[in-house]
Design goal:
elongated; alpha/beta; DUF915_hydro-like; AB_hydrolase_fold; 2 domains; eight-stranded mixed sheet; Alpha/beta hydrolase; 10 strands; Rossmann fold; two-stranded antiparallel sheet
């Protein structure tokens, strides 16, 4: 009897031990299979992500006395209507240093970057210098090699000057597309026919225009430019702040680029401060940038 009890105990121990070994082996195999499956999924996910087109970021640059709201509302509407995503807000402080908020992912669809000047009433020379700092930082720290730009008013003048000073330098991203909204390329003389346009350019040139025109050949020919101007239809042929002739004189600065187009919007919603609040202009900007 004792012999059978011993045999049964040995058999039970064997069965239990085998069960533990089998369970451990099965669990180990399952863990290995799960690990392998996860690795395959990770590779597929990485491959799929790499196949997605890297979005070209669009910088938004405000004008004289501009704030985060100047182009911020347009950016929000583009996010809602066109699937864009605000990635970064870059504030240039008065001493020229940068304060950056947000997160940039190169695979983000239609990433938007807002550029703000703390000293928002500074000169074109200073704004150009600050734009150099911003764009050099984007290339160096975020590996952004190409950008689009939407610039309102004085921001458009400063970015045009930036292009003339940087287009041949590798430290800065290549600008693919530029939208100028109400940019006073030839000054602010409203109602003065001396500044009207002829076939060859403004009849009278401001010093600003003359300098931009003189250096126009320095702008990379690969850029595409879209000028938007406003006419409030009050007889001044202006948006209330910038003459049509001044905004449209950009065509002579960008006469050698790959593509140049322009459009005049009319009525109360085409006043200078309403140009970036006009949903028709939102659509025009979206089509130019992304269609």
């Amino acid at each position: 009897m004792k012999k059978w009890i011993i045999i049964l105990l040995v058999f039970a121990v064997f069965v239990i031990s085998f069960g533990f070994i089998f369970t451990a082996t099965t669990e180990h195999r399952a863990a290995e299979e799960k690990k392998a499956a996860n690795q395959v999924k990770a590779k597929e996910k990485k491959k799929a992500k790499q196949s997605i087109e890297i979005g070209t970021p669009t910088l938004f640059v405000h004008g004289y006395a501009g704030t985060k709201n100047s182009l911020g509302h347009m950016m929000s509407r583009l996010e809602e209507a066109d699937g864009a995503h605000k990635a970064l807000t870059i504030t240039v402080k008065k001493d020229g240093t940068l304060s950056v908020h947000g997160k940039y992912d190169k695979y983000t669809r239609r990433p938007l970057i807002q550029v703000l000047f703390e000293d928002n009433k500074s000169s074109m020379v200073n704004q150009t210098k600050w734009l150099k700092t911003v764009c050099a930082t984007l290339k160096r720290d975020y590996h952004i090699s190409r950008i689009n730009v939407v610039a309102h008013s004085m921001g458009g003048v400063s970015f045009t000057n930036y292009l003339e000073e940087t287009s041949t330098q590798n430290a800065y991203p290549i600008t693919e597309k530029l939208v100028l909204i109400g940019a006073p390329i030839n000054g602010l003389a409203i109602g003065d026919s001396r500044y009207n346009l002829s076939e060859n350019g403004p009849k009278t040139e401001t010093e600003r225009y003359a300098n931009l025109y003189k250096n126009r050949e320095k702008i990379a020919k690969s850029i595409q430019v879209y000028t938007i101007a406003g006419d409030v239809l009050d007889g001044t042929e202006s948006d209330g702040s910038v003459p049509l002739a001044s905004a449209l004189s950009a065509k002579f600065i960008f006469q050698n680029v790959t593509s140049y187009s322009e459009k005049v919007f009319s009525g109360k919603t085409a006043s200078h401060s309403n140009l970036h609040e006009n949903e028709e202009i939102d659509q025009a900007v979206s089509e130019f940038l992304w269609d």
